[in-house]
């Protein structure tokens, strides 16, 4: 018989049915709870295993970092520019000392003798054997550490050696720059946590920093750190060392002279770069104001700017050689042209162009010699804008130089489709484009080395801790930008700039110097300022066999603004000291070299007279100079030689009919300086 029940609403239901419904409900509730528990366990044990495992380790284990020693940085001669100061911390494992039967009183006494302090201090620390690790000395001196190492090394009893394994050394390193501010923008800096912030330190951070090790520490129930000699310990791997191209002697000279000049002319800032034109090695790179990496936080953020790489500006007249070189490449006879410079003021295609010094008619060489904007603008109009643009880019403008330093600017060169009718005029004398100091220095290096653009090199080698070379950075010849003939002509013209033109204050007694002045108005707030200028000078020496290229620039000097007055004297003082630091080797010339190609057809003073008869001009290219002279010994010519060694070009050209008394020019190069592309 079924039992029926009546609910509050008067409905009758079977008691068995009610019980079954409620039982089913409870079943599904418990089933759902079980599924949730299983899913939760699955998530914890499988999907989040790594997370909870690391959390567990964090609760029971802590890693004490064993810091890697950051690599040293040397100059090109092996002098240490950056090193490390060691901060050593001393700790101990009291539990371990008890386990090996150490006499705590005796150990405390020895530690007090070595590290100073009272014996009782060490005794109180070491007797608490519930702890597995305690710090004893936070910053031990190098003398104390050496004394401790010597003490441990002198131990003879195995038990004593075992006891002192319970005394742990943990080293931390602090970066130290022994030359203070010297080359600070090149070297860079690391912060108090060892993080690289700028310069070579940042660019080669992965190489220098090495790999930290660790010592695994456990925690007891009270959260106290403790360690055992037996627990996992991974030793640090020290970083590699770097050898730079920088020379301490060169760097010292240029920094001293730059600071002197900035203060003397009350300039806002300044830059000096010294380069080896054959290898691209940066021998010195200075910015002022600078900073001391040992306490960099005391200096204004503006002091950290490496203006030599970061600031891109309109170079002004130092850029005139770029247009001049293309004109000479296209037409060698352009050297003998005359240009009307309109008395120093001219309107060229609607553009007002003014010269600093008025002249009427100038030769091609004199346009550079007296830095005529009008002459250069008129010559520049003859250039095809696409060819001109490609030539500028070939010299490296508008592109990164590839130097191994961070935050380099590539400057700006507008593509021809964005040129206005006035762009070519302005570009001819260094406006409407932006370049860095380093790009200008490397462009002049290409003239000095015979026409090849070389990549600047700041790091020469990576070395291991034993001084073995891990990696070398080779000399990189990027491309040939001008012929050796044009490079020689430009060198002769640039010598005249220093001897007779705007750069006379860069002249050094007894030294042939080639260079160019630059005075550029600063563009700001949409206009060219009439009060703020960049004064610059860039040159190389000795002109006959260049060893140094030097670029000098002062930003907005107040006492004067002309490059020939402000920057040229700085160049001179630097050059005078560099030749004392690294004397120039002079070689006797077999034949006298004419000083300027423009004199070849106007002066007989330097000509070698060879008189025999008439005939055709043979091809002398590729012959040694002596062989070439022998080959034309049957002709009646006045021969001028530019350079020495192997003939690379000639005037008149091969096959030209020559007559007695005609003038001949042989362009030569030194056999030891075979074209950079051919090496």
What are the salient characteristics of this protein?
five-stranded antiparallel sheet; disordered C terminus; elongated; seven-stranded mixed sheet
Topology:
Elements: E1 4-6, E2 12-14, H1 15-47, H2 49-60, E3 61-66, E4 73-74, E5 80-92, H3 94-99, H4 104-115, H5 119-126, E6 134-140, H6 142-154, H7 158-163, E7 167-176, H8 184-187, E8 189-190, E9 196-198, H9 199-203, H10 205-209, E10 213-219, E11 225-226, E12 233-234, E13 241-244, H11 248-264, E14 269-275, E15 282-288, H12 307-310, H13 320-330, E16 338-340, E17 345-348, E18 351-354, E19 361-363, H14 364-369, H15 373-380, H16 385-394, H17 423-428, H18 437-448, E20 452-454, E21 459-463, E22 469-472, E23 477-480, H19 484-499, E24 514-524, E25 527-541, E26 548-555, H20 563-566, H21 568-581, E27 608-610, E28 615-616, H22 625-631, E29 637-642, E30 646-651, E31 657-658, E32 662-669
Parallel strand pairs: 4-13, 29-32
Antiparallel strand pairs: 1-2, 3-10, 4-5, 5-6, 5-7, 8-9, 10-11, 10-12, 13-21, 14-15, 14-26, 16-19, 17-18, 20-23, 21-22, 24-25, 25-26, 27-29, 28-31, 30-32
Helix pairs in contact: 4-5, 11-21
Plain-language structure description:
The chain is of the alpha+beta class. Strands 4, 5, 6, 7, 13, 21 and 22 form a seven-stranded mixed beta sheet that branches.
């Amino acid at each position: 018989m079924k039992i029926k029940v009546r609910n509050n609403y008067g409905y009758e239901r079977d008691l068995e049915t009610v019980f079954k419904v409620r039982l089913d409900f409870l079943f599904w509730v418990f089933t759902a709870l079980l599924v949730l528990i299983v899913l939760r366990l699955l998530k914890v044990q499988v999907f989040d295993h790594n997370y909870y495992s690391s959390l567990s380790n964090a609760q029971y284990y802590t890693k004490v970092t064993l810091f890697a020693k950051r690599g040293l940085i040397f100059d090109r001669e092996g002098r240490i520019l950056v090193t490390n100061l060691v901060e050593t911390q001393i700790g101990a494992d009291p539990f371990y000392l008890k386990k090996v039967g150490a006499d705590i009183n005796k150990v405390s006494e020895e530690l007090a003798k070595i590290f100073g302090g009272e014996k009782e201090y060490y005794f109180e620390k070491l007797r608490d054997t519930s702890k597995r690790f305690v710090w004893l000395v936070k910053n031990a001196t190098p003398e104390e550490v050496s004394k401790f190492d010597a003490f441990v090394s002198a131990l003879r009893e195995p038990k004593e050696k075992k006891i002192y394994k319970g005394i742990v050394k943990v080293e931390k390193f602090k970066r130290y720059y022994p030359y203070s501010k010297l080359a600070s923008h090149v070297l860079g800096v690391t912060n108090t946590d060892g993080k690289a912030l700028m310069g070579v330190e940042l660019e080669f951070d992965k190489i220098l920093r090495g790999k930290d090790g660790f010592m695994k520490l456990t925690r007891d129930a009270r959260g106290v750190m403790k360690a055992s000699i037996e627990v996992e310990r991974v030793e640090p791997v020290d970083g590699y060392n770097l050898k730079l191209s920088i020379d301490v002697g060169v760097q010292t000279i240029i920094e001293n002279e730059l600071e002197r000049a900035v203060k003397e002319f009350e300039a806002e800032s300044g830059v000096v770069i010294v380069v080896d034109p054959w290898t691209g090695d940066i021998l010195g790179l200075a910015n002022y104001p600078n900073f001391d990496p040992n306490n960099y936080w005391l200096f204004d953020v503006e002091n950290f700017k490496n203006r030599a790489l970061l600031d891109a500006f309109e170079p002004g007249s130092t850029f005139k050689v770029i247009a001049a070189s293309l004109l000479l490449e296209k037409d060698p006879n352009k050297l003998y042209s005359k240009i009307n410079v309109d008395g120093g003021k001219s309107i060229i295609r609607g553009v007002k162009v003014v010269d600093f010094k008025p002249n009427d008619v100038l030769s091609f060489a004199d346009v550079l010699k007296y830095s005529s904007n009008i002459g250069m603008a008129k010559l520049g109009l003859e250039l095809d804008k696409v060819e001109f643009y490609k030539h500028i880019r070939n010299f490296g403008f508008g592109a990164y130089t590839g130097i191994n330093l961070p935050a380099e600017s590539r400057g700006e060169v507008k593509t021809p489709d964005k040129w206005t009718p006035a762009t070519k005029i302005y570009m001819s004398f260094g406006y409407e484009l932006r370049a860095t100091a380093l790009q200008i220095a490397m462009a002049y290096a290409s003239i000095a080395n015979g026409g090849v653009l070389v990549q600047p090199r700041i790091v020469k080698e990576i070395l291991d801790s034993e001084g073995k070379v891990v990696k070398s950075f080779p000399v990189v010849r990027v491309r040939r930008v001008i012929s050796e003939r044009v490079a020689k002509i430009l060198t002769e013209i640039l010598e005249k700039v220093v001897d007779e033109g705007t750069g006379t204050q860069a002249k050094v007694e007894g030294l042939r110097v080639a260079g160019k002045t630059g005075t550029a108005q600063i563009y700001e707030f949409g206009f060219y300022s009439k009060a703020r200028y960049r004064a610059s000078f860039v040159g190389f020496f000795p002109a006959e066999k260049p060893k140094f290229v030097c670029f000098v620039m002062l930003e907005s000097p107040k006492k004067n603004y002309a490059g020939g007055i402000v920057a040229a004297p700085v160049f001179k003082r630097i050059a005078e000291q560099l030749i004392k630091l690294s004397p120039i080797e002079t070689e006797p010339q077999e034949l006298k070299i004419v000083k300027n190609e423009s004199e070849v057809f106007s002066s007989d003073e330097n000509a070698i007279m060879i008189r025999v008869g008439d005939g055709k001009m043979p091809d002398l290219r590729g012959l040694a100079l002596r062989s070439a002279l022998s080959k034309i010994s049957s002709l009646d010519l006045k021969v001028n030689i530019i350079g020495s060694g192997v003939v690379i070009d000639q005037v008149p050209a091969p096959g030209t009919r020559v007559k007695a008394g005609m003038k001949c020019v042989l362009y030569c190069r030194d056999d030891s300086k075979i074209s950079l592309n051919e090496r």
